[in-house]
From TrEMBL:
Transmembrane segments: none
One Pfam match: S4_2
Organism: Candidatus Frankia alpina
PROSITE patterns: S4
GO terms, molecular function: RNA binding
Superkingdom as given in the UniProt entry: Bacteria
Keywords in alphabetical order: RNA-binding
Protein name: RNA-binding S4 domain-containing protein
Keyword RNA-binding part of the UniProt annotation: yes
């Protein structure tokens, strides 16, 4: 997925990637420990992602580009 600018927040990225329907759904994924960024469990919706970061959620492996 391509982003404009230097970074995008994790919650915005998951919504744009159609992993969740609405931004509020991100909280459930994060609270359940179901999101990994670059191999580490992430709990912050506002985590800044940069090109090259890898986001893994159940059923999807996504790369920020």
């Amino acid at each position: 997925m391509s982003i404009q600018g230097d970074a995008i927040r994790l919650g915005q990225f998951l919504k744009l990637a159609d992993v969740v329907d609405v931004g509020s759904d991100v909280k459930g994924l994060l609270m359940g420990g179901m999101v990994r960024v670059n191999g580490e469990v992430e709990s912050r919706r506002g985590r800044q992602l940069v090109p090259g970061d890898e986001v893994v959620v159940p059923g999807d492996r996504l790369r920020v580009g």
